[in-house]
Amino acid sequence: THSYSDGQGPLPTAVLNQIQDEMFNYSNSGKSIMELSHKSILARDLIDDTVERLRKSLRLDDAWDLLLLQGGASQQFVMAPLNLSKEFDKVDYVDSGYWSQQAISEARHCARNVSIIASGENQHYQALPSIDTLNSRADARYLHLCTNNTVMGTQWHQLPDSPTPLLLDASSDFLSRDIPLENVNCLYAHAQKNIGLAGVTVVAVRKRAILNNNLPAYLDYMSHITAGSSYHTPPLFSIYVTNLMLKWLEEQIGGLSSMEEINRQKAKLIYDAIDDSRLFRTHVNESDRSLMNVVFSTGNSISDEAFAMYCKGRGINTIELHPRGTGLRASLYNAITIDDVQSLVTAMHMYQLTLSS
Ligand code: PLP
């Protein structure tokens, strides 16, 4: 049998405890949240409260709509171009590796004039294209960026001062830092990294950016806006967990900027350990290193695997073999504490000692 400890995944223990406490009696209804009708007042209140908290965290004014949708970020690769551009409009993308390529290939099903205006390909996506070279076309509808590339371990630490409005995939660093939205027309992020479980995806979109494109109802942002994110049966349990995560985030003293500071400290601990080590290395360009996903390696897949096993044996789950077979990845999402990262760093030191003894 296993006992539970912190740092196992994207939910803090406090949130898991609350889910357990309320499992059979959500908000004194005598029902489980999983049994609640989505037409009930409690469900409506939960959705409205979650939207309100998200609006507050992102500091959205009346010019913005905020939606809770299903279909993950993958669905937004399609829905965003369908709603923000017309078939023959120009739309621009930056290719920073795997997830941005998914977005580009999906956009090509919706728009005929998709341009990749900058790419990290010739640097094997270990560096982001220089921010000064992001020359989007002046008459493009938007410029799409993936704010944090989960697979490559790169992150935009600054957004371009683009004349073209930005469309952001913020799935893997959402609410891990404060993002200025002045140049942004639309931002989407699934919940399962920093604010809960798969099943719900957040879309923040400027009202004036939504075009009237006569889309099938489900794909049209307007259907969901008109219906207050209940155009069809909403994923109440996932929304509930996001609601708890938002409350938990608000309780972190100082809100988002302190979360960002903590995330910075967490990332520094592990990058310093890598830079000081003779065993581990990262090829990610220093100024583009992600605070969320630290991609590194021993340079040898057998010893990467051995280290991952060593960590598992010590109950450290912040690290995994990279799902694409390119070494190791430590994911430092909001729920991971400085202590969790410290345990990983200690394991890195201890492991190197066992090798050299
Ligand atoms: N965008 C980024 C940055 C991701 O990391 C992922 C998945 O991990 C996706 C999009 C796809 O998200 P989903 O599985 O919710 O469709």
UniProtKB/TrEMBL annotation:
EC number: 2.6.1.52
Co-factor: note: Binds 1 pyridoxal phosphate per subunit.
Subcellular compartments: Cytoplasm
Magnesium keyword on record: no
Domain Aminotransferase class V: 9-344
Pfam family, one: Aminotran_5
GO CC terms of this entry: cytoplasm
Residues involved in pyridoxal 5'-phosphate binding: A73, S74, W99, T150, D169, Q192
Superkingdom in the source lineage: Bacteria
Keywords: Amino-acid biosynthesis, Aminotransferase, Cytoplasm, Pyridoxal phosphate, Pyridoxine biosynthesis, Serine biosynthesis, Transferase
Reactions catalysed, as given in the entry: 4-(phosphooxy)-L-threonine + 2-oxoglutarate = (R)-3-hydroxy-2-oxo-4-phosphooxybutanoate + L-glutamate; O-phospho-L-serine + 2-oxoglutarate = 3-phosphooxypyruvate + L-glutamate
Known function: Catalyzes the reversible conversion of 3-phosphohydroxypyruvate to phosphoserine and of 3-hydroxy-2-oxo-4-phosphonooxybutanoate to phosphohydroxythreonine.
Family the entry assigns: Belongs to the class-V pyridoxal-phosphate-dependent aminotransferase family. SerC subfamily.
Assembly description: Homodimer.
Listed PANTHER family: PHOSPHOSERINE AMINOTRANSFERASE
Annotated protein name in UniProt: Phosphoserine aminotransferase
Organism expressing this protein natively: Pontibacterium sinense
Lineage, highest ranks first: Bacteria, Pseudomonadati, Pseudomonadota, Gammaproteobacteria, Oceanospirillales
